[in-house]
Structures are given as structure tokens and as C-alpha cells.
Amino acid sequence: MILKRLLLLSMIFTVLNLCAQKQSIFYNVKDYGAKGDGKTLDVNAINKTIDIAAKAGGGTVYFPAGNYLTGSIHLQNYITLYIDNGATIIAAPVTASNGYDEEEPGPANEYEDAGHRHWHNSLIWGDSIHNIAIIGHGLINGENLYHTQVNGNKQSANKAIGLIRCRNVIIKDISILHGGWFGILATGVDNFTLDNVKFDTNRDGVDVDCCHNVRISNCFVNSPYDDGICLKSSYALGYARSTENVTITNCQLSGYDEGTLLDGTYQRSDNPQYHFSPTGRIKFGTESNGGFKNITITNCVFDYCRGLALESVDGALLEDVTINNITMRDVVNDPIFIRLGARMRGPEGTPVGEIRRVIISNIVSYNSAGNYACTITGIPNHYVDDITLSNIKMYFKAGENKLAPDTIAENEKNYPEPGMFGKNPAYGMFIRHAKNIKLSDVEFSFINEDERPAFYLDDVKSIYMFHITPQIKAGVDAMVTKDVSDITVVQSPFLK
Description:
This protein is mainly beta. The chain has two helices and 33 strands. The chain folds into two domains: 24-306, Pectate Lyase C-like (3 Solenoid), CATH 2.160.20.10; 307-496. It has a 33-stranded parallel beta sheet that branches.
């Protein structure tokens, strides 16, 4: 009997000890002075809580329901920010007195714009740290963050989350509203997991720059004014570093009016801030110095935004990419845009890059904009190489119902963007300066008649076309070719 009581007491003490340990690793910001009333500046209390947790070896800094008005929050090693349901971290007006940090010195070059060169001017930032997380079902509201740099003001905070040279990072389940220039800018971040995050923002959703081992999954990214998920490989670290080993899966990209993803109304308007059209796409580039390698994109939905863009214009090697199971509706320009160019914003003497070994399959696109098409193009003497497209079904709105001009500018050094060559010479696919191209089970249709051919091939070396079924207007050639060698057409009677 005594032995049983001793065992029971031992178990009770063990449970109490475990509870005490659990309590010690959770740090409620309200216990350290945060008010969460949306009026009091909580930045000092929040950073004090993080400091205490970090000095204890790490832990979870907990934000219960409330509105936390704050300046720059400093992440540290082994810290998890838990933003609970009903909790909102709100960007205070951007001034030094509200606790925003100045820009740290950027890299000793001018190859990137200011947004890619600083991280400390963020609402939440981490520099050279590891084992960190931002989780919970709460909201980060960057309502006072700028969308660009403002008159050289060093306190012009323009990112919701900025991370530089970090590793073992998890961001999960939160929402970001009006994230500034970048909802998340991750540069040189390795072992980075982004899962079930909702972005409803005024510029880029997330930029992944010079990062290795990245998993982006189950995210909603609504970014009408800029890119949704953007992979880059800039000189922001002071040297060229690739972005590689990346998976993007089960995500939705859109260009609805800002704020209408999170409120569930999904509104579309002709807002003049769009400039050309809503953006919201998945893109590789434009900053493209270090290269892109070993990347897969699967099971994604595009709605009222731009399409896929794969770009190497600063000397990058873009290779070993697979893209599979994508549906698009109301795409506002090219559903697929692959561009090898020579902008060469980088060290003098850097050679032109390469794009090779890309597989794109199982793509459905409906109601894509007229005057655009799928584009695959390099520049003279520099070929996009070894591109495979299969099981593609696309429906395009009619363009201006006029043929494109015979001479199409190269624009080798221009910023890469669909529409950079003017009106596309084909309504379906324009391929130029490319080799080893394989197309199979590709179907192009137009919703209204278009006088352009379905395909326009210029300086293409070795192209295999199997089971190609383009819709064509009576009297219009299905395919126009210029300087094409080694072409094989199989079971494609419309191309004969």
C-alpha cells in the first residue's frame, strides 16, 4: 500500500514538473507589458519578451487575442512567435520613435533595387539566426508599410517579414494583409518551410532569393500589383548564390482587389494602380545571377492573374525544372513565358545564362488574354534548350484580329515581361532562338476567331511535334516557320 502511494506521489510530482517546464517555455507578451489594445505601442514589450525567452534558451512567444501596434520585432535563435486566432500584429506608422530600425548596410554593389538590399527595415526581421518559426492563425497587418522606398528615408519600413542568412525556418498558418514591398523576403534562407499562409497584399507575396531547400505548400497568394510567389537569385548576399531544391505545391495565385481574398468577396476591378493588369503569378527572376536548379511546381491554381514566368537575364543557369498539374482561368497575359535574355545586371564579363531541361505538363488555361500567347525565346546565338511541353489545353480570347508585324524586335537587354515584343505573332505559341523542343498533346483554341497562326517558329533547331491540334481560321496557316531545321511533325494533320 505504501509502495503504491509512493508511486502515485512520484507520478504526481513528475506531471507537475512537466507542467512547470511547459509553462516556462511559453512567454505571453501581455505578461511582459504588451497591451494589445491597438493604441499603445507594444514594440518594447514584445522585444523584451523575445529577449527573455532567448536568454532562457528559446521558447514560444505567445500573442493572445488582441491588436498589437508595433515597430520592428527582432527574431532570435530558437524563438517561435505564436500569433493566436484573434491576434493581429499591426505595423505602426513608420518612424524611429515607433521603434522601427534603420536600414542596415546593403551589399557593396548596385545590382539590386533597394527593396532587395535591406531586411532590418521590416516589421519582423531575423538576421543570421536559426531554428525560428512564426505560426498560429492570427494576422500580420502591415497597413503602414510602404510599397517602395520613400525619399531615401532610412525608416521607410517596406516588408512584413525580412529574413537574411537564416536556417531552419517555419512560417505556418498565419495571414498577411498589406505586406508592403514584400510580404516575405527570404534571402540566403536554407531549410525554409512556408505552409498554409494567406497573403492578401499590395506587392510581392513571397520572394525566395538565394535559398536552398525550400518547401512552399497550401498557400493562398493574392497580389494584384506584383508577383505572387517569386524565386530570385540576386547578388544581395554580396555574391551570386543559386536558389535550388524548391517545391511549390497546392497553392492558389490570384489578382483580386487587395483585401478581398481575406474577406471572401474576391472582387475584380479596373483599378488604375494595376498599370497594365493584375499580376499575382509564379515567377523565376527577374534578379537572376546565381541560377535556379532542381525545382518542382505542382497542383496549383491561377485565377485572374498572370501565368508562369521562367526568366534568366543576368547570367543565371536555370535548369532541371518540372511543372505539372496547373489550371488557369482569366490569365491576363502569357500562360507560359520562358525568356533567356541579356540584361546582365551583374559583374562585368559575366556570360549570358542558359535555360535547359524544363518539363511542363498537364496545363489547362481558359480565357487567356488576346494579343498574348505562350512564349519561349532566347536571343541570337543563345538558345533556350531542351524544353518539353505535354498535355496542354488552352483557350485564348481573340486578339486584335490582325497579323503581327514581320519584324519582331529582339529587345535583348530589356526587362523580361510578357508583351515585351509587342503583339505576339501567334495566338498559341511563339518560339524563337530555341533548340531541342518537344511538344506533345497540345491543343490551342480561340474563343473568337483570330487571324494569327497557332504557332510561329523562328530560328528553331530540332523540334518534335506530336498530336498537335490547333484551331485555325479558314485561310490562315496553322504554323509559320522561319529558319527552322530538323522539324518532326507526327499525327498533327493541321500542321501539314
